[in-house]
């Protein structure tokens, strides 16, 4: 990780707006407020490619409540609910 990445403020991906790009710092499933158990949510996110160090970009937001969001993780585009994206901490 570079010094510039360390200096950027960390925030949940679920708070990001369209056009945001950053790097995944960690997962924090306990703060997501998802209906899924923490371990299951974390496992699903990892399977989708949300791993530490991966580059992410918010491509699109849904019309109703800005949910779901389309996110590019490295070279893959994925749609996730904002409440699940709250578990992905980015900078």
Describe this structure in words.
It is a single chain. By secondary structure, this protein is of the alpha+beta class. It has one domain (3-90): SH3 type barrels (Roll). Helix content is 22%, strand content 32%. The chain is built from three helices and six strands; from the N terminus they run H-E-E-H-E-E-E-H-E. It has helices at 3-7, 38-48, 82-85, and strands at 11-12, 21-27, 55-61, 69-73, 76-80, 88-90. Strands 1-6-2-3-4-5 form a six-stranded antiparallel beta sheet. A hairpin with a 2-residue loop joins strand 4 (69-73) and strand 5. The protein starts with a helix and ends with a strand. The model has no long low-confidence stretch (mean pLDDT 90).
* Helix amount: 10-25%
Q: So how many helices?
A: 3
Mean pLDDT: 90
Query: What would you call the structural class?
Result: alpha+beta
CATH class categorisation: Mainly Beta
At CATH level 3, the topology is: SH3 type barrels
Tally of discrete structural domains: 1
Q: Topology as H/E string?
A: HEEHEEEHE
Low-confidence stretches: none
The total beta strand count reads 6
Global morphology: globular
CATH architecture type: Roll
Taking all Cα atoms into account, the compactness measure Rg is 12 Å
Please state roughly what percent of the residues sit in beta strands, choosing from under 5%, 5-15%, 15-25%, 25-35%, 35-45% or over 45%. Answer: 25-35%
CATH superfamily: Ferrous iron transport protein A (FeoA)
Report how far the terminal alpha carbons are from each other. Answer: 11 Å
Major beta-sheet overview: 6 strands, antiparallel
Spatial ordering of strands, largest sheet: 1-6-2-3-4-5
